[in-house]
Amino acid sequence: MECRRPELRAAALPTRGSMESIMIKDVLVHLDGGADDELRLAHAEAIASVSGARVRGLFTNLLPDLAVMTPMDGGAAAAEVIASLDEEARRNGDRTQQRLAERFARLSVPNEVRRLDGTPGQLMNQAVSEARRSDLFVAQRPYDGDGSAPWDDLFESVLFGSGRGIYVVPPGRRPSDAIRRILVAWRDTRETARAIAEAAPLIARAARTCVLAVDPEETASGKPALDLDVARHLERYGTEVEVNLARSDGRAVSEVILDQARRMSADLIVMGGYGHSRAREWILGGTSRDMLERSDLPLLMAH
After folding, report:
1. What are phi and psi of 17, to 5 degrees?
2. CA distance 188 to 230
3. Which of 136, 169, 202 corresponds to the end of one domain?
4. pLDDT, position 83
């Protein structure tokens, strides 16, 4: 791996007014009444407390999908059972909503809890709409196999459909006292540019930002190309920037990114969320999915 601290022109530090213009004002955190709600809420509160942002809890209360459950010849007995399941889900939702309201009353930042009742498909669409009205969406890591399955599709819908960044909380990861060190997984793509834009308020407060390019394009002499323009851009936010170039040499790109992030004790990894279209739906793939499945550090992704 080649690590360089580029010689950049002195950049003016952001003024108070310019910092205000890139502050996060609304943090939307996904809650489902499960044990990991507290972890996601802790990350949301930590992010919001830096800039006095508002935390909005989005409690998605899952209801039985009657269209899927109802048999063609189920009759009155089946309808009664299904109605009973729906009522039970709503009663459970009432208890969870009360518990969340009590927890939110103890937060140190302005807050509110919003409840959505619906089937998985309904909740996906509503969550996307809610995310568009916020600055950042805090979610649990998908594809975890430990209770995340009902929300994997919701995660992808928000990533590909909301136009907002998603802050991904790994299992068991408590928030840092501050996000001081950020790794940007750089590719010259729209998705990476979107992720950097969404992370700008956090980058502006970071003491150090590392731009990592894995398997970068080579110059005519066969040397890896060093992209100083992105470093100059990030330095104007007031963070100290270095550029690292690395070759994967047969390893997974996600492994290279995580190795570098751990070496620098990164508090956050910023990267584009890439996918491919299938039946008019976007499906995560490649390095993006690998990172989500393997990262033990928080990620900020955008598409």
Report:
1. -65, -40
2. 9
3. 169
4. 85
CATH value at residue 7:
3.40.50.620
Q: How many C-beta atoms surround the C-beta of residue 39 within 10 A?
A: 19
Q: How far is CA 162 from CA 94, 145, 243, 293, 303, in A?
A: 28, 24, 30, 22, 9
**3-state class percentages of the chain: helix first, strand second, coil last, to nearest 5:** 40, 25, 35
Q: Please report the pLDDT score of residue 166 as a whole number.
A: 98
Same structural domain, 134 and 204:
no
Smallest CA-to-CA distance from 192 within 92, 264, 274 is with: 274
| 8 Å CB contact between 23 and 49 | no
- Residue 88 is predicted with a pLDDT of 96
Do 152 and 30 lie in a common domain? yes
- Segment 94-133, tens digit of pLDDT: 999 999 999 999 999 999 999 999 999 999 999 999 999 9
Residue 286 has pLDDT above 90, yes or no: no
Which pTM value belongs to this model?
0.88
Domain residues for 179? 2-19+174-302
Please provide the distance, in angstroms rounded to a whole number, between the alpha carbons at the two ends of the chain.
27
Among 139, 169, 199, the domain-final residue is 169
Looking at the structure, tell me whether residues 132 and 155 fall in a common domain. yes
Mean of pLDDT values over 236-244: 95
Please give the tally of structural domains in the chain.
2
User: pLDDT per residue over 264-277, tens digit each?
Assistant: 999 999 999 987 65
- Residue 276, token pair as written in the block: 């491919």
Q: Which helix (H) or strand (E) holds 84?
A: helix 75-104
Burial of 220 (0-12, 13-18, 19+ CB in 10 A): exposed
What's residue 202's pLDDT? 97
